[in-house]
Amino acid sequence: PPFPIKLAGVVQHGFGRGGKDLGCPTANLPDDSITPMSSVTRTGVYFGYAQISPEKDGKRILRDEDCTVMPMAMSLGWNPFYKNERLTAEIHLIHDFGSDFYGHQMNAIVLGYIRPELDYTTREALIDDIETDKRVAIKSLSRPAYQKYMHDTFFATEY
Ligand code: ADP
Ligand code: MG
Questions:
Q1: Does 159 map to a domain?
Q2: What is the atom index within ligand 1 of the atom nearest the CA of 101?
Q3: Residue 137 lies in a domain
Q4: How many CA atoms are closer than 13 Å to the CA of 92, on its beta-carbon side?
């Protein structure tokens, strides 16, 4: 796939399907922002960097530390709501936020593939795998060839 892939959009409400319960909330991108990802037909988990804008409706809401460029793991999958004809991208940022950030602008650079979508028989197995994904994302991003993307002009240097 043609990495890096740049995605941007306003964070949407999803189905609220237990992301937070699993310790893995995912910020959902709007459908039309996923076009750059359409060349990638492989569903699964990807890694890269993401950044959230501090502002919503012109007001600065988020703390400074919530608006830096952060490592992320992204799930790309076919959306059952659209009869599996549309892709959905959901991004878990590896950071503890002080609050939710629905309605905020999110920019992301996808840099590589971690694994395909898998079926889990237990909740514990799923949670374990999410933890592995986070470790793989952080470990992969520690390579200098990837770190330079933190400073890409696609991200804001200062908010
Ligand atoms: P939804 O189905 O609405 O996407 P989730 O359980 O996946 O519900 O929660 C996603 C929301 O959680 C995000 O839109 C964001 O506002 C908030 N959130 C808080 N921390 C994070 C994080 N580290 N990564 C992604 N989203 C987060
Ligand atoms: Mg989500």
A1: no
A2: 16
A3: yes
A4: 22
What is the residue range of 86's domain? 5-151
Residue 85 known to be catalytic: no
Give the Å distance between the CA of 42 and the centre of ligand 1.
Answer: 23
Place of tokens 């999958």: 77
Atom from ligand 1 closest to the CA of residue 16: 2
Q: What is the share, in percent, of the chain residues with pLDDT greater than 70?
A: 99
Count how many Cα atoms sit within 13 Å of the Cα of residue 65 in the half-sphere of its side chain.
6
The answer to whether position 138 is within a domain reads yes
Distance CA 129, CA 117 (A): 11
pLDDT in tens, 12-70: 998 877 678 788 899 999 999 999 998 888 999 999 999 999 999 999 999 999 999 99
Q: Give the C-alpha distances (Å, rounded to integers) separating 118 from 33, 125, 129.
A: 25, 11, 10
State how many domains the chain has: 1
